[in-house]
Design goal:
By secondary structure, this protein is of the alpha+beta class. The chain is built from 14 helices and 15 strands. Strands 5-6-1-7-8 form a 5-stranded mixed beta sheet. Strands 9, 10, 11, 12 and 13 form a 5-stranded antiparallel beta sheet that branches. Helix 12 (about 255-275) packs antiparallel against helix 13. The longest helix is centred in the middle third of the chain and has 21 residues, at about 255-275. This is DNA polymerase IV. Its cofactor is Mg(2+). It is found in: Cytoplasm.
């Protein structure tokens, strides 16, 4: 029995989420990413791609190529929320699901042809996702993951493509070798030096020649070029960590700015934990100096999702970590060892008032954005790019919370 592997990809996902929240962006060039001098493009709308802008490009270059675009820093919690919506739809509908990234999925539909028809089912599933989330999505359907992924990329934007069993080589033959997953810029340049640019030519090459030229990866590339891929679907499991990083526009030793950034990260990640009904048992703080040397420290803690437990631990780790007294380029915070659970009252420390305060704060954030309410200690230059983008109150300042748990 031939396998039926479905690959789904949310088109320009971050841009689509922003357009879902602000319809005035539809049809206009939009770029999402780090807006500082050192920022990179996370996502670019198709209108921007016509000017040569692509993900991974330096933001400074993107501004030169497409100055008329709308530039948005983005909001990780919003994108996670939309991704979760799509994930839940797929989990309800498909027998085996693999979530390979925040906007990319594989599903094994093998055996469904006898009951319904895999292509018809995939089309109806795509329609359901678009209707319920408002996000454009494309899919490819074939006998394996490689061909399905390539088919999705050929179907974009906002369309679908099926490659029938036995036609994998014919489908791949005219395409650029860059279309094969795992063929990056470096490998593509090596192919160009060999005079090879199309998949069809790789199909004609002896596998021994590929192994000689590219080592052990040569056989894998040759097999994928010939439409052969035995990679199984890895069933989706909940993530076990969340993290946030900040790269400064200018390296700094300003401890006020650094600690403000860390507080804002710790608070925002704690909100994400509570919003996802999660608790963490491990904190990691990372520091990258101006010479690109990177150091980190972690600490095991009792399960919690409370700001007033996490923020002091993050700052304490930073104090232990920051020993070189050099300019700092980047700081980061990660919560790992996640498990399902609600934040519980500690009989020796907390009161109902504290728990109710968190509930009220989170309700405001869920409705108006995760920067709509914050601690006074997280205000300032160091926190201006943490969490949500823009002002959810249309020019009104956020609610500032000052209480004894700092």
């Amino acid at each position: 029995m031939n396998r039926n592997i479905l690959h789904l990809d949310l088109d320009t996902f971050f841009v689509s989420c922003e357009r879902r929240l602000n319809s005035s962006l539809i049809g206009k060039p939009v770029i999402v990413g780090g807006t500082g001098d050192r920022g990179v493009v996370s996502a670019a709308s198709y209108e921007c791609r016509a000017f040569g802008v692509h993900s991974g490009m330096a933001m400074r270059m993107a501004r030169q190529l497409c100055p008329q675009a709308t530039y948005i820093r983005g909001n990780a919690s919003v994108y996670t929320k939309f991704s979760k919506m799509v994930t839940e739809i797929l989990q309800e509908q498909v027998p085996v699901l693999e979530k390979s990234s925040v906007d990319e999925f594989y599903a094994d539909l093998t055996g469904m042809d006898r009951f319904f028809g895999c292509y018809r089912f995939a089309k109806e599933l795509r329609t359901k996702i678009i209707k319920e989330t408002g996000l454009p999505i494309s899919f490819g359907l074939s006998v394996n993951k490689t061909v399905s992924k390539v088919a999705t990329n050929e179907a974009k934007p906002d369309s679908q493509l099926k490659v029938d069993a036995g036609f994998e080589k014919i489908f791949l033959e005219p395409l650029s070798i860059k279309k094969i997953p795992m063929v990056g810029e470096k490998t593509f340049r090596r192919f160009c030096h060999l005079g090879v640019k199309k998949i069809g030519l790789v199909q004609q090459m002896p596998v021994e020649m590929m192994v000689s030229a590219f080592g052990k990866n040569g056989r894998t590339i040759w097999e994928r070029a010939n439409g052969i891929d035995r990679t199984p679907i890895i069933q989706y499991h909940e993530r076990k960590s969340i993290s946030s990083e900040r790269t400064y526009g200018r390296d700094t030793t300003d401890l006020v700015k650094l600690k403000t950034t860390l507080r804002a990260m710790a608070e925002n990640l704690a909100f994400q934990l509570r919003a996802g009904n999660k608790l963490t048992s491990c904190i990691t703080v990372k520091v990258r100096y101006s010479d690109f040397q990177t150091y980190s420290k972690q600490l095991k803690i009792p399960y919690t999702a409370a700001d007033h437990n996490l923020i002091p631990q993050v700052l304490e780790l930073f104090e232990k970590l920051y020993q070189r007294r050099l300019l700092i380029r980047l700081v980061g915070v990660r919560y790992s060892g996640l498990t399902e659970g609600h934040y519980q009252i500690d009989l020796f420390e907390n009161t109902n008032r504290t728990v109710n305060l968190y509930k009220a704060m989170d309700a405001i954030r869920l409705r108006y954005g995760d920067r709509s309410i914050m601690r006074a200690a997280t205000l300032g230059e160091g926190s201006r790019t943490i969490g949500g983008q823009g002002n959810p109150f249309n020019g009104q300042p956020p609610i500032v919370l000052a209480h004894r748990h700092q």
